[in-house]
């Protein structure tokens, strides 16, 4: 679920009565201290504490630099109802940051000779799946990875949004998602330019299932095992007792509702474009491992960081990585937004800084709390990049 369908999302939510969708969340304790002497620990803690005092339920931050190593902190609550304090060991939703993990998995299949980037997706998908996509034979695997396919975004389809909101605890399959854009016209000629679509990464998971057998196992084998990420979980979200509860300000009036059950079921259904939770440090370890060449070959790293342009001709996206600027400094990474969560994971090469920020506050729609999340992110990056 992404920003572009805010209007449809609100229309549906405003017609619904609140439901009790809370889940349990247990306290957790770090087994080892996380760099108590980090030089910016106190100003960052002060910043986070100020924003949670102003009403954000919980926020967590993790960083890494070669000079000071890893550091992580948290503020606020993992579960408001019983004041469970948010700790750096609590799990946060990746939302679209999961696309970066999926891109690595696909490129590992390319390295193994099981997929060719410039082959049409019809090479790897059975007809019952590829027939959903208009002119599927003109769309390549590369175009899915860098969002240049022109395929419409299923998560923007009003029929999908309506069903999701009317049945908040319903699970969806990949075929279900594709049915909402079946034979829809392409948005532009494939390969023309970048335009973000969750459908691209859903199709990548379906390709991986055909070629590898199980895209979830592919992510485990390609990313989690090599980097020893023991606090990262894909497609088993509902089993994690230290997962944060999720909150949403659906009316934009500063009144938070617990939407944890809906968030869990929705995220557990999503494939490749979402579906992953992790502890803050694990997110940073993943991006560091990727960009330091621990997961992919040099050739694959060059491919993943070959940037395609947006409509304005500006370099924007590689394969599961954005090319962006914050506080005037170049960054590589990805952000994520959901009904009950939001996060950002970026690397700033000039500062050799990796940073993750996560909140258990929904960031899809506008409102005072969502704006506070944006303000906090900007102030945090300003502080880190000084």
Write up what this structure looks like.
The chain has 386 residues and is of the alpha+beta class. It has one domain (3-384): Beta-lactamase, CATH 3.40.710.10. It has helices at residues 6-14, 41-53, 98-111, 127-130, 141-145, 158-166, 174-179, 198-211, 215-224, 260-269, 280-291, 298-304, 368-384, and strands at residues 58-65, 69-79, 84-85, 92-93, 232-234, 247-248, 257-258, 276-278, 308-309, 315-317, 322-326, 329-338, 341-348, 353-359. The strands form four sheets. Strands 3-2-1-14-13-12-11 form a seven-stranded antiparallel beta sheet. Helix 1 (6-14) runs parallel beside helix 6 and helix 3 (98-111) packs parallel to helix 8 (198-211). The two termini are 34 Å apart.
In short:
This protein has 386 residues and is an alpha+beta fold. Helices cover 34% and strands 18% of the residues.
Q: Which key terms come to mind for this protein?
A:
alpha+beta; three-stranded antiparallel beta sheet; 386 residues; seven-stranded antiparallel beta sheet; single chain; 13 helices; Beta-lactamase; disordered N terminus; 18% strand
Helix content: 25-40%
Number of strands: 14
Quickly give the CATH architecture: 3-Layer(aba) Sandwich
Compute the separation of the termini in Å: 34 Å
Number of domains: 1
CATH fold description? Beta-lactamase
**What does the main sheet amount to?**
7 strands, antiparallel
Q: What is the arithmetic mean of pLDDT?
A: 92
Beta-strand content bin: 15-25%
């Amino acid at each position: 679920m992404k920003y572009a369908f805010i209007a449809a999302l609100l229309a549906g939510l405003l017609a619904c009565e609140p439901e009790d969708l809370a889940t349990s969340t247990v306290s957790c304790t770090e087994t080892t201290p996380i760099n108590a002497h980090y030089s910016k620990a106190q100003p960052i803690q002060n910043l986070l504490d100020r924003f949670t005092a102003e009403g954000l339920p919980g926020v967590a931050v993790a960083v890494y630099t070669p000079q000071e190593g890893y550091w992580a902190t948290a503020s606020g609550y993992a579960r408001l109802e019983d004041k469970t304090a948010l700790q750096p060991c609590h799990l946060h939703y990746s939302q679209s940051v999961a696309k970066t993990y999926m891109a690595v998995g696909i490129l590992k299949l390319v390295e193994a000779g099981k997929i060719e980037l410039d082959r049409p997706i019809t090479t790897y998908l059975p007809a019952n799946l590829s027939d959903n996509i208009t002119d599927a034979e003109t769309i390549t695997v590369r175009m899915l990875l860098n969002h240049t396919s022109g395929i419409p975004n299923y998560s923007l389809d009003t029929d999908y949004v309506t069903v999701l909101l009317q049945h908040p605890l319903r699970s969806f399959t990949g075929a279900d998602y594709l049915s909402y854009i079946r034979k829809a016209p392409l948005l532009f000629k494939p390969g023309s330019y970048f335009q973000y679509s969750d459908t691209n990464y859903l199709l990548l998971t379906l390709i991986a299932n055909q070629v590898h057998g199980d895209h979830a196992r592919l992510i485990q084998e390609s990313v989690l095992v090599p980097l020893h990420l023991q606090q990262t979980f894909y497609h088993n979200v509902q089993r994690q007792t230290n997962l944060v509860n999720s909150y949403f300000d659906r009316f934009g009036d500063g009144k938070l509702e617990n939407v944890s059950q809906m968030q869990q079921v929705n995220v557990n259904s999503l494939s490749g474009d979402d579906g992953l939770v992790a502890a803050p440090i694990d997110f940073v370890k993943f991006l560091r491992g990727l960009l330091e060449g621990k997961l992919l070959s040099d050739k694959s790293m060059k491919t993943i960081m070959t940037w395609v342009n947006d409509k304005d001709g500006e370099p924007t996206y590689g394969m599961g990585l954005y090319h962006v600027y914050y506080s005037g400094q170049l960054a590589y990474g990805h952000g994520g937004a959901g009904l009950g969560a939001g996060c950002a994971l970026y690397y700033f090469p000039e500062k050799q800084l990796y940073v993750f920020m996560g909140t258990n506050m929904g960031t899809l729609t506008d409102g005072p709390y969502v704006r506070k999340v944006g303000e906090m992110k900007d102030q945090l990056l300003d502080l880190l990049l000084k």
